Amino acid sequence: MWRIIVACLSLLASGPSQAQEVIRLARIADIPDQYVGGEMLRAVYARLNIKLEFEDVPGKRALALSSAGAVDGEIQRIGTLSRDYPTLVQVTPAINYIEPAVFATKLRFDVAGWDSIRDYSIGIVRGVGSSEAGTRGMARVTATTGLDNMVRMLDADRFDVMVTDLFSGLAAVRKLNLQARIHPLSPPLERIHIYHYLHERHRDLVPEVGKVIAQMEASGELAALREALVKQVLNAP
């Protein structure tokens, strides 16, 4: 979907030519922040001479595959994932962050945390842990099959507001040419650091990947790459 060539990635893999190990990660389909996180990880793994491949599936399916070991892990998920899926091992430090935000058509109000949307009907994407956790216990929550579907449902007034990360929501609204109809409310609900996860059979790889993430974070490379990827997705034709 987002066919972006990240020129710097080819420069990151150094060393003698040899057969690369391949790691396959579950990627939630059609979620822009998952694309960005995946490309950030591609740069990380290139430092280890490991090639990444992605399995694009719905959110719940992704967790079923990764926790069962059918794929090697998850690109990025909230920090509490291992509590519910103990076969998935968290890689630290965080690889990325998301800012869950409220989008609406008619409503305009200042967002003051998750409780400020409790009385509205809310759309979320099924399998997105931050949205499921933030709206848990709320009376009128509709779990949709995907981001584009949710945006279309909001446009059709199927619920009052939708919740998704700010970047992904802006990208999806732009993609569907609904900027004049759907707008984000401010400020975002929160900022959540999200983590890469590997299946427990790759436990020995976890500290190696974490070390590279920490190095790229300290040098500013990770933040610069994220910024470039976000801009390219939002400016894509």
TrEMBL record:
Gene3D superfamilies per UniProt: Periplasmic binding protein-like II (3.40.190.10)
Signal peptide residues on this chain, from the entry's feature table: 1-19
Designated name of the protein: ABC-type amino acid transport substrate-binding protein
Keyword match Calcium: no
Keywords (A to Z) from UniProt: Signal
Domain of life per record: Bacteria
